[in-house]
Amino acid sequence: MSEFVQKPGSWNLFRNGKRQNDKQPEYRGTITLEDGTKLELSAWVKESKNGEKFFSGTVREPYRKPEETLP
Fold this sequence. Notes:
The chain has no helices and four strands.
């Protein structure tokens, strides 16, 4: 089975099944820029004053655990 490879200039969002509170995004995903850079997407469903629903979100570099420091 081959692994999915995201094409440059494309993105995807998936429902966040691990969401535990309103501060966590409802949708998470990735975007691959034309230069191959991959970024993380987070999105929330919001509602405007006139009742229209829309996505609000953030784009950032993927989280990386800090390297452990040796004593």
